[in-house]
Amino acid sequence: MSSKTKIVVLRMKEIIYTAIFVGLGILLITLFLVMFRPKKDSVTASGDPVLYVPGVYSSAITLNSQDINVEVTVDSKKITSVTLVPLSEAVTTMYPLMQPAMDNLSEQIIKNQSTKNISYSTETRYTSGVLLKAVDQAISKAQITE
Q1: Residue 62 Cα distances to 59, 68, 106, 140, angstroms
Q2: CA neighbor of 82 nearest in space, from 62, 53, 112
Q3: At 71, is the secondary structure helix, strand, or coil?
Q4: What pLDDT digit, counting tens, does each position of 86-98 carry?
Q5: Neighbours of 20 (CB within 10 A)
Q6: Are the CB atoms for 66 and 84 separated by under 8 Å?
Q7: pLDDT tens per residue across span 55-101
Q8: Helices (H) and strands (E) in the chain — how many of each?
Q9: Is the whole model's pTM more than 0.85, yes or no?
Q10: 104/125 Cα distance (integer angstroms)
Q11: Are 111 and 80 in contact (CB under 8 A)?
């Protein structure tokens, strides 16, 4: 019987390149697993729940072709500020109750950490209603959904 022996010759350069590519592949897979795994940070180290994704969120109000943004700034546990941006002189002149109503609402929202149970005067009820709706939209963008 004759057996045909095959000899395979591998060059060291090919082995090194293969090892490098295998190592990079493993590193890439590990990186993807770390980056895209589900986050479990809904509770902080102190045990308090995380309510918001920290940042500045805005909602637009259109008044006579002028856009006014209501910006809500939040950190992970609370609402830190509520402002109108940009409030030009034209808007201030045309809608004089806009800024005072927002100042009143902003104080109450920061104090209560909610748009519920907010009180406002009868002369600013429509303005306050529009502003509260915009603030609710901005807050809903910031809230963590599970």
Answers
A1: 10, 6, 20, 19
A2: 112
A3: strand
A4: 777 877 888 888 8
A5: 10
A6: no
A7: 899 998 888 778 888 999 998 888 899 988 877 787 788 888 888 88
A8: 4, 3
A9: no
A10: 12
A11: no
- Tokens read off for 61: 């109000």
Four-residue CA torsion sign, 96, 101, 103, 106: negative
> Residue 89: helix, strand or coil by DSSP?
helix
Look up residue 91 and give its two tokens.
């808007």
Give the chain's length: 146
Q: How far apart are CA 62 and CA 55, in angstroms?
A: 23
50 touches 44 (CB < 8 A): yes
Count of other CB atoms within 10 angstroms of residue 108:
16
